[in-house]
Amino acid sequence: MDFYTLSDKTIEKELGHRIKALRLRKNMTQKQLAAATTLSLNSIKSLESGRSKLATLIAVLRELEALDHLENFIPEISISPMQLAKMQGHVRKRASGERLRPQAKDESEW
Amino acid sequence: MDFYTLSDKTIEKELGHRIKALRLRKNMTQKQLAAATTLSLNSIKSLESGRSKLATLIAVLRELEALDHLENFIPEISISPMQLAKMQGHVRKRASGERLRPQAKDESEW
DNA sequence: CTCAAATAGATCTATAAAATTCTATTTTAG
DNA sequence: CTAAAATAGAATTTTATAGATCTATTTGAG
After folding, report:
1. What is the pLDDT of residues A14-35, one digit of tens each?
2. CATH class of A3-73
């Protein structure tokens, strides 16, 4: 499946369906899942239709023993030795900016 | 990384960090990402600290060209021929319930 | 086939995220 | 080193989700 051809809304729904499939695989009702996660039945229903917070998703995945899926979800970035060399061992913490006026040290003097 | 040993909050933060890494890999500022997604700068900041909605995450992943990761996220459940046989070709759409009183056909009569 | 249970959907209230605007700190180009 | 830009964090208003309750529809165990 190519997610790039789908709208955000469609992707949300698709994820909801897959989470529902995980629940059914364990033969749990929405009610049981709600109780197990201390979330409301409504939250479970919303999640399975794609509308929810990350926190809700995480709690549900934990209960469904599917937390490990998160690993593939957003993988840790691995920096290759070559890249590291290129950066002279410096790991960037911010994106580079556009400097408008490279201010001179003493401009107020002219 | 074993997510099961981590608290929900910690997982949220970890995911936020990874999204930040994805952004830096493309050398984009939070501001640029906000503009590109038509989200607010604050939403980007919140996402990178782990607090956001699924919709926000999807929009950002699309912009960061990381939507394909979702494919592995929660794989579509593939039903094996054997499983299908066991279910007699029936695909379950609901979890099985607990029936309290297997109501007799004519109970009102005694 | 029946009907109890599961699920969908809709409406309120409460709570949290999105958006906007500030202040403060940190990184890094020059 | 310096200052401009990037980022963190906090307060406020708007908007969406969480939670609770109700109605309606659908599934599947018996």
Report:
1. 999 999 999 999 999 999 999 9
2. mainly alpha
**pLDDT band at residue B76 using 50, 70 and 90 as cut-offs:** confident
DSSP states of B91-108: PP-S-----SS---TT-T
In this prediction the pTM is 0.90
For the record, the structure tokens of A47 come out as: 């999640």
Protein CA A94 to sugar C1' C29 (Å): 12
Could you state, in order of their start, the residue ranges of all structural domains in chain A? 3-73
Question: Domain B3-67 sits in which CATH superfamily?
Answer: lambda repressor-like DNA-binding domains (1.10.260.40)
Chain-chain contact of B8 with A92 (C-beta, under 8 angstroms): no
Give the distance, in angstroms, between residue B86 CA and nucleotide C2 C1'.
Answer: 25
